[in-house]
Amino acid sequence: MPNSSNPNADKQKRFRERQRAKGNKEVRGYVTPKGMQCYKELSEKSGWTDGELLNNALRITYAAYRCGQIKLLNEWLKSNDC
Prior knowledge:
The protein has helices at residues 7-21, 33-46, 50-66, 70-79, and strands at 25-26, 30-31. It has 2 domains: 7-47, no CATH class; 49-82, no CATH class. It is mainly α and 82 residues long. This is HNH endonuclease. Residues 1-27 are annotated as: Disordered.
């Protein structure tokens, strides 16, 4: 009888293993070590949960988009080493 394993599940498992091998940690997606440091700092300073951090990040990004300020937000993030 052929292997009844789901090829997509195997592909996802290999992806997760590669991300862990790179040192990335899964929060709500894979985060680089530098990103994880920023995440922890934001979490400690704000007291927000993972869901609240994600929600507020989306709100800030959407507000920047609606105001035509994505470029400005991106430049600020780069200049502040985020």
